[in-house]
Amino acid sequence: MADDLREMALEMFSPLPSTTPAVNDNLITPAKIDLGKALFFDPRMSASGVFSCNSCHNLATGGDDNMPTSIGHGWQKGPRNSPTVLNAVFNEAQFWDGRAPDLAAQAKGPVQAGVEMANTPDNVVATLNSMPQYQDWFKASFPDEADPVTFDNFAKAIEAYEATLLTPSPFDAYLNGDENALTDDEKAGLALFMDAGCASCHNGINLGGNGYYPFGLIEKPGADILPEGDRGRFAVTDTADDEYVFRAAPLRNIAVTAPYFHSGKVWDLETAVAIMATSQLGADLNDQEIGQITAFLGSLTGTVPVVEYPVLPAETATTPRPTGEVK
Amino acid sequence: MADDLREMALEMFSPLPSTTPAVNDNLITPAKIDLGKALFFDPRMSASGVFSCNSCHNLATGGDDNMPTSIGHGWQKGPRNSPTVLNAVFNEAQFWDGRAPDLAAQAKGPVQAGVEMANTPDNVVATLNSMPQYQDWFKASFPDEADPVTFDNFAKAIEAYEATLLTPSPFDAYLNGDENALTDDEKAGLALFMDAGCASCHNGINLGGNGYYPFGLIEKPGADILPEGDRGRFAVTDTADDEYVFRAAPLRNIAVTAPYFHSGKVWDLETAVAIMATSQLGADLNDQEIGQITAFLGSLTGTVPVVEYPVLPAETATTPRPTGEVK
After folding, report:
1. Do the beta carbons of residue A204 and residue A14 sit within 8 Å?
2. Closest Cα in chain A to B314
3. How far is B173 from chain A (nearest CA, A)?
4. Whose CB has fewer CB within 10 Å in chain A, the N or C terminal residue?
């Protein structure tokens, strides 16, 4: 029976690997990881000097922020909840609507978004080129390139760093054969998660992040949770079938990354599970079942890698000055 | 001659100690340091969830931000340049006008300032109490107290952490007897720094931070650098003699903490040195002399301690929600 549950689970899910995965067209080296970490934590990558990648994808708080939607340049609010960067390398595509094929493409988005970091590729490159240490780090990270300080390489270095942000969890230990890694409640939740149909969308290594589904497949939630103005993947594909379609949220570390959904309107994980059951499965789960599924989701909270906070290069006379001006 | 210079220097300055200093009325323990680090990096200490202590006193960039004045809650600008937290434990008092006697008193300021973190002591305590792990950490840090989660203890823990942020520099190695720790230019700059009179105000362990002086003692700089609306320590003492009086800036890590002065209006260190010479000393230094003093100031850039980025407790159902609302 115990073995049966794990065997079923192994058909739907995969444990995290124990090493950094390879990514397409981007050789991961220690030098590139270190550069990417510096860039990830550097607030001077934003026009104002206030925001770094880590501001909204904070490694101290589950790899996201703790807000419905992020606050960015000029105190503007972003349109959707900030997803966690942890294990994001295993998502099939990035953003809630999957509009970026990989983390390098994703990294170029927020830095240019007017409501987020409000910067330009030219200004990022000028900022990096103004600091000799960054020039050296780019040379070491892209040794075959004559002119390595580019916006593309900025994004690739961030992707390389983010690929290291894996958080092995009790669920991984369980999948790897440790029967005692999950409690009985968590195992009951796992069984329910598969039986009730949650795993039809939330499967694979990240229990989600690898497919697109309408939010409200069976019953559309209210506009407080599914705001009408945000039609999801429709904006990417311009296809009627993609109205209110979103990438299934990856569920690793979900217990520590409230609030939930692309709208960030639900703070309580049990409530989120209940909404999913109704809207996506038409299932009427009782409180005990919801509690067990939530307990199982808690077993997806993993150990964040040790991060040595970087010491960044100092500005020079040619570093573009920060500006909080809203254009 | 070489020994003479060091002997003279040792009469004016002191090297950093090699261990964390004791602070008044606040026993520093490993548990308290760890708690203080978590609090220092926790953006949920601000009303919006955007700003932590580290936002404006960023350990990655010299212990300050890189702006004339910080951007805070509601995208408001603070009134004065953010000073570095590095080695700040050795300042006689905190803030540009010395209005906080120590780091614990200082820590209570920005968290409540409407233009900075815009929080309240009650909301900070409610936030901390909502997370069991924070409760445990406060108990471990203040083991003799029945009710350890208080705003006072919040500030004391931050003070304990900040007391560990010491950055030994080549100048310390020189003071400790390593003749080769400074270049000839840096030594010439050190001699000038003492001869010209800079060290009259910028002395002691932090080369400043321990006395109050009018900005514009000899010649008042223009309103672009010394804005008329900010009368400095006058706001603290209400004494005419304290008009435009500020605490002498501590100069450790000055080369990596541009822009300069309480107004943050000067980005170039040589320019700042020239302004100081004119306004405070009435000295007419030539370019070589300014270059040598600037070289000496560069020898005050120290090694930042290794900081393991914290993993913070997750919010619970009772955690007060972040709000970006500007009251």
Report:
1. yes
2. A256
3. 21
4. N
Tell me whether residues B43 and A59 touch, CB distance under 8 A. no
A311 touches chain B (CB under 8 A): yes
**Quick check: A1 pLDDT over 60?**
no
Which chain B residues have a beta carbon less than 8 Å from that of A48? Answer: 67, 71
CA separation for the pair A313, A252 (Å, rounded): 34
Tokens for A90?
């295993």
Residues 6+ apart with CB under 8 A from A230: A79, A80, A262, A263
How many contacts does A have with B, using Cβ atoms within 8 A?
A: 95
Peptide bond into A259 cis (omega under 30): yes
* CA–CA distance, B62 with A101 (Å, rounded to integer): 36
Cα A307 to Cα A257: distance, rounded to the nearest angstrom = 19
Q: Hey, is the C-beta of A173 within 8 angstroms of any chain B C-beta? A: no
pLDDT digits (tens, 9 = 90+) for B36-55: 999 999 999 999 999 999 99
State the average pLDDT for chain B. 96
Q: Which residue has the tokens 């079923």?
A: A8
Q: Which amino acid is at B291?
A: G
From A3's Cα to the closest Cα of chain B, the distance in A is 33
Q: Which residues of B touch A258 (CB under 8 A)?
A: 314-315
Q: Residue A211 in contact with residue A201, Cβ under 8 Å? A: yes
Calpha distance A54→A43 (Å, rounded): 9
Alpha carbon distance B204, A202 (integer Å): 61
Instruction: Write phi, then psi, for B173 (nearest 5 degrees).
Output: -60, -40
Chain A: residue nearest B317 by CA? A268
Q: Give the phi and the psi of residue B245 in degrees, each rounded to 5.
A: -90, 135
| Cβ of residue B314 closer than 8 Å to a chain A Cβ | yes
Question: Catalytic: B145?
Answer: no
Q: Nearest-CA neighbor of B311 among B119, B164, B137, B111?
A: B137
What distance in Å separates the CA atoms of residue B315 and residue B131, rounded to the nearest whole number?
A: 6
Chain A CB contacts of B59 below 8 Å: 309, 311
Q: Which residue of B59, B71, B309 is in closest CB contact with A60?
A: B309
Residue A65 to residue B49, Cβ atoms within 8 A: yes
Beta carbons of B208 and B309 less than 8 angstroms apart: no
Q: How far apart are alpha carbons B198 and B208 in whole angstroms?
A: 10
- Nearest-angstrom CA–CA distance, A11 and B125: 46
Average the pLDDT over B95-110 and give the result: 94
Radius of gyration for the alpha carbons in chain A, expressed in angstroms and rounded: 21
B255 touches chain A (CB under 8 A): yes
Residues of A with active-site annotation: 116
DSSP B94: B
Percent of chain A topping pLDDT 70: 99
> Closest Cα to residue B213, out of B239, B237, B245, B240?
B245
- The crossing angle, in degrees rounded to 10, of helices A121-129 and A151-162 is 80
| Partner B, chain A 15-44, Cβ-Cβ below 8 Å | 41-44
